[in-house]
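Protein modeling request. Please complete all fields; requests missing the sequence field cannot be processed.
Requester role: graduate student
Desired output: 3D structure, token encoding
Chains: 1
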Amino acid sequence: MRSLLKWAFLLALMPCCGGCLPHSVSSTQVGIKVKKIALFGEVGVVDEPFEPGTYFFLPLINDWYTLDTTLKTLIMTFDSRNADLGMRDDLVFKTIDGNDISLDLNITYRIDPLKAGHLLKNVGLSDADIKDHIVRSIARSKPRDIFGQLTTEQFYDPIKRSEKAHETEKALNDVLNPYGIIVDGVKTKDYRFNPAYEMAIKDKKVADQKTQRYISETKAAKEDYKKKLQDANGDVNEMVAKVDGAYKQAELSSNAYYEQRKREAQAIRIEGEAEALAIKKMNEALTGNAGLAKVKLEVAKSLQNKKILVMPFNQGGIDIKSTNVNSLIETYGAKALSEKN
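Delivered output (341 residues):
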């Protein structure tokens, strides 16, 4: 009886509606059909999505929706001119060490066409509904928890921020993928601390830079000192080597001179000993009869070819009385004259 009533109702509506109406799906969309009255099957969202093309359905008993499948960006920023809501929409939270910070964040996402019906049924009927009801609410809670794990100093490190952005992207996909939303990227933009604290951070960074510069200058001075010390050590070592060389040369020369004088002394001593031994032997020879004979021989040799004049002596002197003086004068005078001529 109920089925008959449905058919009767549809037959009554068709003349009023003028038949089926066309519904188009562009290349960047996915179509979702909702059955309000079903002659066959169940009433409600048709799970199978409609790909790009044109479809005809009876009006009144069917509703038709399209969702955009292109990449979208959720912009949460301090600058109200660029924010999606037209007002300040940045993330405000505390770092793990307790400092207040606000962070600009861009999240890119898209709809999974195969789960478009699920989105329509459980989230919203339009792209704006999906963005506001689920993407924004999840995107404002998860990043706070993850980026809040950084310290104030770590926020200045772009590598640390990038690591947390990838971690946030994974966490958002874990929550949104079952709904039919795929997050393709999370990008951090500007960030701001409390003005007074930010000034203190800047002052600290300036102080750290000065400290680092002083450390570098000190290190450079130490290296320069080490180099000069090495150069000085090299000069000292060279001087020591020269002095050692001169000393060794002088020592060798001294030793050579000493050895030479030592050999000369030994030669003189040996020569003196030989001469003394010869004199001793000669004295020994002269003390006997052979010595007297040798003395006589030497005297004879010295008197050889010499004229011997025999004069009479008396009581230790020449006996003038018995000497022929005239003959003596004549002899020596003639001799002296012959030698002069």
